[in-house]
Amino acid sequence: MKISLDWLTSLCPTTLSAREIADLLTKAGTEVEHIEQVADDFCLHVEITSNRPDCYCHLGIARELSAITGTPLKMPGVEYDTAKFPVTDRVRVSIMDRVNGPRYTAQYLSKVKVKESPEWMRKRLETIGVTPVNSVVDITNYVLFEVGQPLHAFDAEALCGKTIFVRAAEAGEKMQAINHREYDLKSDMLVIADEKRPVAIAGVMGGALTEISTDTSTILLESAYFNPESVRRTSKVLGLTSDSSFRFERGVDPAGIVSASRRAAHLMVQLCEAEVSEGIIDENYLDSIERSIRWDSELYERTMGAEVDARTVARILLGLGLKFKNDSTNSGRNHSGSSGRTFEIPSFRRDLERPIDLVEEVARVIGFDEVDDRLRLPVFSSKREKFLNVSEIVRSKLIACGYHEAITDSFALETGVDGKSLWSERGTKKLRGSQQKERSSLRGGIAQSLLRVIASNQGHTDEAISFFEAASVFPTSEDGKVGEFIALSAVATSDYREIKGALEMLLEISGAKVRVEDFSHQLIKQGTGIRVVTDDDVRLAYFGTASAEVRKEIDLRSDAHFFELDLELLANLWDFKLRHRDFFRFPAAVRDFSVIVDSRLDWREIESSVRGIGLPHLAEIEFIEVYRDKRIPDDKKQFTFSVTLRAERTLAGDEISDSQGLIIRTLEEKHGATIRS
Hints:
By secondary structure, the protein is of the alpha+beta class. The strands form 8 sheets. It has a 7-stranded mixed sheet, with helices on both faces. α1 (about 5-10) packs across α3 (about 60-70) and α5 (about 135-145) runs antiparallel to α8 (about 255-270).
């Protein structure tokens, strides 16, 4: 919102500079973003929040300044002498759509002389970026930016008949607006029509056939209230916006409609030598809503930690336009006590609903930095949620390993790679009513999204790329219900051992007791899949290399490896106890084994058989990979694993060889394994 300093100070007379006014308004919650000098005036660029449509005008900002400084408002003049003929002799109004156009007022002006506006008006309009047109159009614009009520002036002689209809557009109707573009009207759009055709799109823009020209001598002056939703819908469908539609969409003050019309008539009498008919047609089907809020001084003290005297409360709230209830003689500046008083809420302050709202109004006008804070709040240390701690640890560890954190879209394609999930055989489920035509499903996993990021980055670099992301996934259960939990996925194009090591590192530092088993899935290259499960057989993580199907669809230029784990489950399993292990004084003996076994054999059986030997110095068994290639029969697969032997001395070569031989013989005899050299 642009505010002219000259215009503002005519409504709230003050000698404060533009910078001082800007500082005061900003401290009270009406932020002035910057100040621009325009000729001999200053333009204040004010940011108005959507809940304060009353401030989309100079009077609204002047009211704020008045409450802050205590300077009385100087209200715009609305007085004028009327002609002898009643308005109903010249015009009638019929509201046919009382939902979308519940209030419509009209005045009739004759003997109008359309000319150039006076310099003071042109300068104020130019300061806020409005180009002067002629005295009548400038007056309607001036009142709009002064009091916030949009008006429209019709050339009365161009209207067909004496009756104005506020109605829905009829099928096939068109209208040329004052921007000289023709618009196709739809039946859910509200129009202002004469007895033959639409002459304005209600709340949006007037028609070219009745626009004001230098030949205009009679005027029908409109001031109305239109349903904000109707105006917003019409403006969006037509792709047509205006200063009027901007304000109607946010809701104008129902109580200010007549006074705005009188203000415009006052100026037209002064500047256009117009004669105004007696009376104002006011067709009003708006419900009268009276609201009041009782001031609660105890609530203020509890909230702000300070007291405020009753006179200050009265000065601020009355200055903002509120009134003491049942006090019709109050001029708006009665500073008598307010403790426990009830205040009537003006119709232009729809944001004031509860006692706490009055507390905020008083506090912001005083200035939050000026509140004498006597409240001392005790501060206690609190324990962070376990999940947040684990999430932070996991993130920091992956970043330390060279992974970059990514944020990707939670929406996915319903078919193809995106339609599959490691966590559910049913994949993803399409959302009903989704606004996205293609990506209309919530993703069942994160890995696919990160693989697309890898593919995109491969177009810009040949270096190894690695990303991770922690976010919600939405797998579909067997009964068709969509679940949700937070997963963590990481992808990399480096050696698969590096990303496998990152997963092993996270599992190791968590202290979780887990085991691994081979796993096959359409997203994972045959023979590379691993599933990590807990001791009670709950799946915790998946690991593998992207399959050929994935590479083709996503257009990956090289192998990409990934893991995905249930971060919420990992957090529950996380053991924060300090674990200490002495440094080993003697070197360990590590031996790798590659054995070809039946494809139906699970890694757990291999591990169990090795542990069952009872090797005296067995320290660790580590799964490395499952492998298949053309040299291995289809009904076979290769397990590669390592065995670590350690003692409180240096093991002799014979001891190591004996243990190695025992492992080989056990696997050959028990599982028919073939040792691959």
